[in-house]
Amino acid sequence: MTEVTDSQIDEAILSELGPRSLKTARIVVRVGELFNEADQAFLDRVEARIGVLIEAGRVRLFGRLADWRCSELALMPPDA
Fold first, then answer.
1. Phi, psi (deg, nearest 5) at residue 23
2. How many domains does the chain have?
3. Is residue 1 in some structural domain?
4. Rounded-to-integer distance, Cα 20 and Cα 38, Å
5. Distance (Å, rounded) from C-alpha 2 to C-alpha 14?
6. Would residue 30 count as lying in a domain?
7. CATH number (domain holding residue 54)
8. What 3-state DSSP class applies to 73?
């Protein structure tokens, strides 16, 4: 299988998000499904890419990123 790039993961994350918040676990698992990847290493990589997008101001986090089941994500509003 071809190696999935960080850019591809970022695009997949952003495509799953909208203005309304969604559970982080849902996003992480859905991105894994998009690439047919379910191993923990890949899911950890998705979490790391979410962290990069949060720091870049593209994704808004509600809660703690490491707590997938309790935290939520949304796209950062354009006026933020």
1. -60, 135
2. 1
3. no
4. 25
5. 21
6. yes
7. 1.10.10
8. strand
Residue-number span of the structural domain to which 16 is assigned: 6-75
Classify residue 73 as left (phi > 0), alpha (psi -120 to 50) or beta: beta
Is 41 inside a domain boundary?
Answer: yes
Mean pLDDT of 37-45: 95
DSSP per position, 4-55: PPHHHHHHHHHHH--SS-EEHHHHHHHHHHHTT--SHHHHHHHHHHHHHHHH
Q: Is a pLDDT exceeding 70 seen at residue 1?
A: no
Q: Which pLDDT does position 78 carry in this prediction?
A: 83
pTM of the model: 0.93
The confidence score (pLDDT) of residue 55 equals 98
Domain-embedded: residue 62 = yes
